[in-house]
Write a structure and sequence with these properties.
By secondary structure, the protein is mostly beta strands. Helices cover 11% and strands 44% of the residues. It holds the Pfam family Utp13.
Length: 728
């Protein structure tokens, strides 16, 4: 693929799906409704591409809690202005969208923290930080009860025979009789706890309520007789609980362990650690026979009921992403390094994620060698490097990373890694905030076996250690980046001292030597990249420029300007004829080196771009118009091979192309083929289809008017020409 890239578009994005708050199961157990700041993300667990968003991402309001009425397929969302919005949930999102059914102001004086439906779905209880619980009759659309309590409400539960149990953050439990005409609403106070009530659960087929608390106990109460049956120790600060189909209690808390108890005796039946940190929530879905657990790091974890095996993990929120790389056969997995100590391992098809524990501080860089894509190297702020191997288990083909060895020796944060392009004399190079570059030989990597790890001990200390074959002081300040030439003969590094430095590599002795210095940047160097098929090197800097260097003569061939802020990443593409760059404002630009022209500028992100990489064939950046006169049917056949999502992306391009006189014929031809291939009903059911068509109409009319004028001018010219000929 050597055609210059003119445009790029988002193929798929891994976005935040949960930022704290509530997550609810759908009625069929196939979807999750998760709170994501000001919208609800609907996660389809069967078909990830069918996931969608409820709410306006531009809304300044913040969601405080949600509730799902499984009887009527409706979702209620409470916002921080004490307003509740009710949405109808479509049975088939591909044919209809969630609709706002109604909105009402609750008259609470503080944010609503909890909402629960009764079993029939006609009553709703809202509990607020104003110490008040309100009962809403949704059929008659009115508030029937206002119940004042002693503290902030933390849990509510509808019981049998018109009873309501309310838990408060100071440990009190109140029992209310909400029967119409009842002479006394508040009928009982239970004071068995001295800390936050974190959960209220109804024992199936009974009038018994279980209360869970952070005081490491649970209490069991009978709502009809108002008797406290038992108070039992659980020996852990409980954050959440749920009851399984077998009638046992499942709890999670600060230990990161799911525990199963017999309710009557608090006997521990089984337990399993699923997180290294606290688990904030757990709920059970009897349709799919699965648990959903939510970690304090805002990750969603699905567990099978029978063996508590983690069947799936969904990363709710990444924070800053520092590095990414593709690995595995056919680049089927993606490793992500973010502002956490875990590596996130994604399946690129399903976007399922595994959290890989090993480092103790933020992971800054991940790289995989082309000669063995099952290997991965990672480095961290904990001053260490770990070599991993990708393995696929026989159980549902789930993949994970197992540790092979570690490299220690840097005295400060290891900022970046690069691995040799050839496996004949393989090596790893690292740079650090200690201003050094180190070379690590990987000649015996094939002999490395999976290390056995004791989770109670230091992870890195238990791994076999690589030996450093060469160390050089690289820069006068922190070293930011590193790259290795295609022949493995040279290494380039860039630092905060504004310099790019070149290093010779003796692969026989695994030693480094000084090869030169490239100066010219006025700010720290953010990235360096060798061209694959030429003696060129690209560097980018905080001075908002990209420089192209001749590494043989150590001269600057070109300085490319156009970014308005610091440029953090650069890569060569299209057989080294173009470069792609990314800056601190989230802008991605494509440049043609020969002309220094910016071919495309895309708002890729809303903040700093720390990582920029490509897949093996650069297919993410390909646009083929397929409009050759020699193959008139090629475009039609190509569009027929596209799926619905790809056609939607193509429509987005059509809208953009249609705004330009030069590219409007392409847009019109592509749109012509689409409307003749895709059935009308299927076309209008695509998300945003009406918007695309409305955007096409005004420019299409403008192009038609222009063509009409051109036709009139041609006719006039032809008429004048004929008159002149006849006069002669």
């Amino acid at each position: 693929m050597t055609d210059p890239i003119k445009e790029i578009a988002v193929k798929r994005s891994v976005e935040a799906v949960f930022t704290g708050g509530t997550v609810r199961w759908s009625a069929n157990g196939q979807k999750l409704f998760s709170t994501c700041t000001n919208v609800v993300k609907v996660i389809d667990l069967v078909d990830n591409s069918a996931s969608y968003t409820i709410g306006d991402p531009e809304d300044e309001l913040r969601i405080t809690c949600t509730a799902v009425d499984k009887n009527r397929n409706r979702l209620l969302i409470a916002y921080n202005n004490q307003v509740i919005r009710e949405y109808t949930i479509p049975l088939d999102p591909s044919t209809s969208k969630p609709e706002l059914a109604r909105t009402w102001k609750t008259m609470h004086l503080a944010p609503i923290l909890v909402m629960e439906f009764n079993e029939e779905g006609n009553l709703l209880a809202t509990g607020s930080a104003d110490h008040i619980v309100k009962i809403w009759n949704l059929t008659e659309q009115q508030c029937t009860h206002t119940l004042k309590g002693p503290a902030v409400v933390s849990a509510v539960l509808f019981g049998k025979n018109d009873k309501l149990v309310v838990g408060y953050i100071e440990g009190q439990l109140h029992l209310y009789n909400i029967m119409k005409g009842a002479p006394k609403k508040h009928v009982m106070t239970w004071s068995n706890h001295n800390s936050h009530i974190t959960g209220l659960l109804m024992v199936p087929d009974s009038r018994v309520v279980v209360a869970l608390s952070r005081d490491q106990t649970m209490s069991i109460h009978e709502t009809e007789t108002q008797e406290t049956l038992r108070v039992l120790p659980l020996y852990e600060s409980i954050e959440s609980g749920t009851i399984g189909h077998n009638g046992n209690l499942f709890t999670v808390g600060e230990e990161g362990i799911v525990k199963e108890f017999v309710i009557e005796t608090a006997k521990l039946v089984r337990k399993k650690r699923i997180s290294s940190g606290q688990i904030d929530h757990i709920c059970y879905d009897d349709v799919s026979n699965r648990f959903l657990a939510i970690s304090a790091e805002q990750n969603l974890i699905l567990l099978d009921f029978d063996n508590l095996r983690v069947s799936r993990q969904i990363v709710g929120f990444h924070d800053e992403i520092y590095s990414t790389c593709l690995l595995g056969k056919n680049e089927s997995y993606m490793a992500v390094a973010s502002n956490t100590s875990e590596i996130r391992l994604y399946d690129t098809k399903t976007l399922d994620c595994q959290l890989i524990h090993g480092h103790t501080e933020s992971v800054l860089s991940v790289v995989s060698p082309s000669w063995d894509t099952s290997l991965l190297a990672s480095c961290s702020k904990d001053n260490s490097i770990i070599i991993w191997k990708l393995v696929t288990s026989s159980e549902e083909s789930a993949a994970t990373l197992v540790p092979l060895c570690a490299a220690t020796g840097h005295a400060n944060t290891v900022t970046a890694l690069a691995v040799s392009n050839s496996g004949r004399a393989p090596f790893l190079a690292s740079v650090s905030s200690d201003c050094t570059i180190k070379l690590w030989g990987l000649g015996d990597y094939g002999k490395l076996k999976e290390a056995k790890i004791d989770t109670e001990k230091d992870f890195v200390e238990q791994l076999p250690k690589l030996s450093c074959s060469s160390t050089m002081v690289a820069h006068g300040k922190d070293v930011n980046c590193i790259d290795i030439s295609e022949s493995d003969a040279l290494i380039a590094t860039g630092g905060m001292d504004k310099l790019v430095k070149l290093w010779q590599v003796d692969t026989q002795k695994m030693q480094l030597g000084i090869a030169g210095t490239l100066s010219g940047h006025r700010r720290g160097v953010g990235d360096v990249k060798f061209a694959k098929n030429s003696h060129k090197l690209a560097s980018c800097s905080g001075d908002m420029t990209i420089k192209i260097w001749n590494i043989s003569e150590k001269t600057c061939l070109q300085t490319i300007s156009g970014h308005t802020c610091a440029v953090f990443r650069v890569i060569f593409i299209r057989n080294d004829s173009q470069v792609m760059s990314a800056d601190s404002a989230g802008i991605i630009k494509i440049w043609t080196i020969k002309t220094a022209d910016c071919e495309s500028s895309v708002d890729g992100h809303t903040d700093k771009i720390w990582s920029l990489s490509k897949n093996g064939d650069e297919s993410e950046f390909v646009i083929n118009f397929l409009m050759s006169d020699d193959n008139p049917d090629e475009l039609n056949s190509a569009i027929r091979r596209l799926d619905t999502r790809q056609i939607e992306i193509l429509l987005q391009f059509c809208v953009k192309w249609n705004t330009n006189t030069r590219t409007s014929p392409v847009a019109q031809r592509v749109f012509y083929e689409i409307i003749h291939i895709v059935p009308p009903d299927e076309l209008v059911s695509m998300p945003g289809a009406y918007g695309y068509i409305e955007s096409l109409l005004p420019y299409t009319q403008r192009h038609m008017d222009r063509l009409d004028r051109a036709k009139q001018d041609v006719s006039l010219f032809d008429f004048v020409w004929r008159q002149m000929r006849s006069a002669v």
